[in-house]
Structure formats: C-alpha cells, structure tokens
Hints:
Belongs to the binding-protein-dependent transport system permease family. FecCD subfamily. GO terms for molecular function: transmembrane transporter activity. It is found in: Cell membrane. This protein has 355 residues and is an all-alpha fold. The protein has a single domain (24-51, 78-351), classed as ABC transporter involved in vitamin B12 uptake, BtuC (Orthogonal Bundle), CATH 1.10.3470. It is built from 13 helices and no strands. 78% of the residues lie in helices and 0% in strands.
Amino acid sequence: MNAALADQLRRERRRRRLLAMGALLLLAALALASVCLGARGIAPIDVLRMLCAPLLPAHWSAGVDPAQRAVLLELRLPRTVMALVAGAGLALSGAAMQGITRNPLVSPYTVGISPAAAFGASLAILAGAGGSVLGAYFTVAAAFACAVACAAMVLAFAALRGVTATMLVLGGVGLTYLFGALTASVQFIASEQQLAAIVQWSFGSLNGITWHEVAIAGAVVLACAPVLLAHAWALNAFAAGGDETAAALGFAVRRVRAVVTVAAVMATAAIVSFTGVIGFVGLVAPHIARLLAGGDHRRLLPFAAATGASLVLAADMAGRLLFAPVIIPVGIVVAYIGVPLFLHLLLSSRNRGEL
Length: 355
C-alpha cells in the first residue's frame, strides 16, 4: 500500500511538472507569435536578432530593417508585454478573490472596480481629456482614483459589519450598480465624440500601449503578486473550511481578507486604468487553472497567472489578425475564446467525475 501510494505521488508530481512546462511553453509560443504576426510579418530569427542586438557583434544585426525594428520595439513588444501583465494580474487577483470569499462567481471586478474605473475615465473624457499624452494620463489617473475609492468604500462598509466575504460581495454589488448609473449619466450628457471615446474605453483594448504604461502597470502587479502568493496557505484554509477553519489554524481572518483584497484591488485597478475593462479573465482563468492544476493555491495562483496571460495573448492576436485591418478590442474577443474553452473543460471534468 505504501509503495502504491508513493508511486501515485510520483506520478502526480510528474504530471504537475509536465503541466507547468506545457503552460510555460504555450505562453512563450504565444508571446513569440504575438510579436511576429501582424500586417507586416517578422521572422522569429529576426525578432531574436533585434532583441539580442546589444549583446551580439555588430555584423550580426547589420541587415536588420529599421522599420521592422521600430514596429517590434515600439508597437508589438509593449503590446505583448502588457497582455502578459494584464492577463496574469487579472487572473491572479481573481483566483485570490475566489479563495478569500469561497465564491466561484467572484472576480476582481466584484467589488465594483470595473464600473468605478469606467466612471472615472468618463469624467476625464467629459472634462476634455483629449488625445495628448497629458490627457491620456489624466484619464488613467481618474480611472485609477475612482477604482481605488470604490474599493475603499467597499472595505469601509465591510469593516462596519466585520470584514466578511458576504459583506465584501454585497458592498461590491451595490457600488457596481451605483457607478454604473453614474457612468450612464455621464454618457447621457456627453457629446457624440465624447460618447464614442467613453464606449471605446470601456471595451478594453491594448491599442497604443507604451513602455511607460507597461512599466507602471507592471510595477504595481509585481508589487502585489508576492503579497498574494505569500497568503497561499491562508487561501487554502479559507477555501477548505471558511473563516472558522482559517481562524482555527491560526490565521488572522479579518487582516488576511483585507490584505488580500487590497492587493487584488490595486493590481486590477492598475491594469484597468491603462487597458480599459477586460472582463471575464479574472473569473474564468482561475477556474481553468483549478480544473487543470487542482485547488492548492500554492500551484493554483501561478498557474492561473499563466492561464490568464495566455488567454489575453490569444485573444489579442485573434482580434488583430482575424479581421485585419480592423482590430477588435481584446475585451470583446477574450470572451469568445475563453467561454468555449471553459465550457469544454467544465464538461470534461464532470464526465471524469471531478466536479
């Protein structure tokens, strides 16, 4: 019996290692395809030459097309990196929020971040934030400030009754409707050009992403990710038995829930402020990761991040290539790609008796 159990554990470890390697290889392949494919294709070897040019002898990069180099470094590469950051950050935050609330329907947007950010961006556009760099950053700042303010109100509301999962969800639902109504009011009084800009922002898009935006969003996500990963054991306790189990195991329930929520909110707000509302990723990517990698948050969180990044990358490529030269916003395409994949995995898992 012991030998059989040890053999089963070895097979399970081998399966997890192969699964992790497969996820990383898929992510690398999608990232390479994202920078290579487009209206003007770039060969993978040329991509590697341009990326490694500072480390290679001068004659190795002598034949590089300057136009291709500009397209790669200023357009496709920042877009690809932002897709990685956005997908990973949203999925990581979604997995943490689902664990801390024990609710599979929770996403990073449950506390009202999405409509609050849309309201902030709508106000900025209504105030005349145009296409200039200063105007774009004013829109980003307004969206981020409103998203954080909404999350702070939810946490304050929950603190009045104890920071419980129910209070977080109910407070978020209430403020979601409030900020949705405020955004609709702004749209009602906006001009046609302003209304078009507001609607376009709400779609969620990676068009026009710059390295400065990637650096800011990436820095916030990188700062929040270790906080979420450090609470993997606590998330396991919450997911296994709720507040009582977590408290019995020695975790400070209210503090852990507040810290995890704040980290997830900050990462999500930073992403949404630059990309607009990319829905669905924070909800479905954790489920896909859970079906493939199991419910242990030590593995679930990083695997969810890889799954979300792959999902956003694939959606962005599909939106750029399928209807070229028209670019479909990634926030729209990601649902078309993610829903069938999620339903397939869900049905497969039920057929195997896993759910």
